[in-house]
Design brief:
Layout lengths: L2 E8 L5 H9 L11 E7 L7 E8 L2 H8 L2 H6 L1 H6 L5 E8 L5
Length: about 100
Amino acid sequence: MSVVKINAITVPAERMDEFAERFANRAGRVEQAEGFEAFELLRPNDGRDLCLVLTRWRSEDDFQAWVRSADFSAGHSQHRQSGPVGTASEIWSYDVLERI
């Protein structure tokens, strides 16, 4: 059964474009990670300030291996170098029960 990890990131409206640009310029290494299945970046269109980064993984173990990897660290280097765009974030975790 797949698992979905959602990084819910609060982004001020005036920084939404910068947030999207950083993802457009990301390292893109997650796509090669063992067990990686899908990635989506969601930007609100209803006045909210909560962006969602969704990744789907074959298993929790695959996700945890990615988080511990050098590629994960490299993929988040923009955050370390330029500081965060968001003001808060939290990780949500779900099991996929059905997919069409």
